[in-house]
């Protein structure tokens, strides 16, 4: 298995202060090389907070948030393992429905169902989301595609979602 982790990030509360400290940095410390793709809003939030530069310092690959132009080389090799965290409720719903309205969801949507590719989605949602009639269906759709899902807690480090990734050897 490759050591390349496709880290995909959306704009959940805390991303500007927790992403590098609780996900990206610990993933690198565990031996993962990061191929990072951000939703456009997450890219804006991280740039505004100064964390985008810190994130870039954790990978030797381009941190992307937009599509590449035709004829340009692909900025990342294809990862065998993806972590989508933090993921918003809207992004989880779009992924479950196969909607790809930004580069981050396109990367993930193209990877779901690929032989040998594993994916973990760490979502951050309010308790009320669980009462929405469509929410469980979105989680079930991802589960049926072999995607592992995990709720990120506001009061615990996000690092626990890394334990759901395959073990590097």
List keywords for this structure.
169 residues, alpha/beta, five-stranded parallel beta sheet, 6 helices
How would you portray this structure in words?
- The chain has helices at residues 15-29, 40-49, 51-56, 89-97, 103-111, 135-144, and strands at residues 4-9, 33-38, 81-87, 118-123, 148-151.
- The protein contains six helices and five strands, in the order βαβααβααβαβ.
- It has a five-stranded parallel β-sheet, with helices on both faces.
- It is α/β, with parallel strands linked by helices and 169 residues long.
- The relative contact order is 0.20.
- Helix 4 (89-97) crosses helix 6.
- The longest helix has 15 residues, at 15-29.
Quickly give the structural class. alpha/beta
For the sheet with most strands, the description reads: 5 strands, parallel
Low-pLDDT runs of 5+ residues are none
Helical content class: 25-40%
The whole-number mean of residue pLDDT values reads 95
What can be said about this structure in brief?
With 169 residues, the protein is an alpha/beta fold. It has helices spanning 15-29, 40-49, 51-56, 89-97, 103-111, 135-144, and strands at residues 4-9, 33-38, 81-87, 118-123, 148-151. A five-stranded parallel sheet has the order 2-1-3-4-5, with helices on both faces.
Strand and helix map with partners:
Elements lengths: L3 E6 L5 H15 L3 E6 L1 H10 L1 H6 L24 E7 L1 H9 L5 H9 L6 E6 L11 H10 L3 E4 L18
Parallel strand pairs: 1-2, 1-3, 3-4, 4-5
